[in-house]
């Protein structure tokens, strides 16, 4: 199977095929004409001696500095070398593969003025497994992701560093090992490779996909806890959710009811209590609101992954070359700040359910801290500490990056998005939230054993069995770190 790029129709199903199934990627035949016409327009403007930013001028504050025709190609390679100064841990292979895919798709849109060979170079690296080493820190999120994308682009010209077959090596050696050759850049092409939002958007896409997978586990985990705490069923009934009319809230409530069908642990109003605490009763409202945020984030990401984010943009039909600001990452910065806040809340309410599971004053007759021998053994007491620590860390990480801006390039670039920082924070929030939810799942499974797992609903029993296949009942005090990590892998 092959995924074809045209700059217009990339979506998450295609991303999953490329990233997870490693399907081949190619340029759609219908897009090749747009790419060719856009390149011809660049050469026409250049031949006419017109002054165009980034083609025959310097960059940023140097935009008024004219570059001679003899130095136009040197200008492009100098751009990559000078801008490749990012620092920190490299982005994951998954994110770098996404960067290659997204940058190729943006160039395929036909407003960047590059030759087809440049796009083929990106896709060759993606298809052959040449993964540029891209440090994750150093982007302001406008003018795009300059520093990270410069590291990506250097490998295409046989410089920089790349990983090929799990071995890190010089970019040229990686290309040769994969049977590829470096390209030489012509006018506009270096700038077209780095002036975009693909580092933040790739990170954001990875964060969104992980968040959606976590949401699918969140309802299962909450349902198991709902049973373990003998939750009051009426709070999940459809009629109360219909009158609020948020579709995601009703969706979560319906999901919980399906999973809890047949449970012999569920209660009704007045059996044990009239109503539950909010961390149980309001699961549909909170999880539904989080799902609504993720749906909005998905919409924004699909727009951005099919956007032209270069500067300048080449409009061959009108003859216009426009120096605009599509590289500004504000839409992604907002989306990732919002996603980070939402997933922080997912962990927040999960930790509150952990507290109810372990606290003998709140867990409806279960042993204190789910201990087999309370007092002699501490049981799951400290797992709640760990969950609380991770939730607190997430509250710090959830502070929005998009409200910050530091001027750069001699104050020419005087407002930036910090969108890449927002996306990187969102990834860490998701990692933390997954571990909090793993603690909840462990505690809920322990509580199910103490009640009698045969009393569980069919679907929650299946989930319980999935956990027990990795982590047995905790009959004696032991280190639970490995158990938490194992359940986090399941989630």
TrEMBL record:
Residue positions where 2,3-didehydroalanine (Ser) is found in the record:
143
**Subcellular location, in the record's words?**
Cytoplasm
Q: Does the keyword Glycoprotein apply?
A: no
What catalytic activity does the UniProt entry give for this protein?
L-histidine = trans-urocanate + NH4(+)
Kindly provide the PTM information from the record. Answer: Contains an active site 4-methylidene-imidazol-5-one (MIO), which is formed autocatalytically by cyclization and dehydration of residues Ala-Ser-Gly.
For this chain, the site of the 5-imidazolinone (Ala-Gly) cross-link is 142-144
Any one Pfam family match given in the protein's UniProt record, by short name: Lyase_aromatic
- Name the Gene3D superfamilies for this protein: Fumarase/aspartase (Central domain), Fumarase/aspartase (N-terminal domain)
Q: Which keywords annotate this record? A: Cytoplasm, Histidine metabolism, Lyase
EC number(s) given by UniProt: 4.3.1.3
CDD domains attached to this UniProt entry: PAL-HAL
Q: Which domain of life is it from?
A: Bacteria
Pathway given in the UniProt record: Amino-acid degradation; L-histidine degradation into L-glutamate; N-formimidoyl-L-glutamate from L-histidine: step 1/3
What GO MF terms are annotated? histidine ammonia-lyase activity
State the family it belongs to.
Belongs to the PAL/histidase family.
Enumerate the PANTHER family for this protein: HISTIDINE AMMONIA-LYASE
Q: Mind telling me what this protein is named?
A: Histidine ammonia-lyase
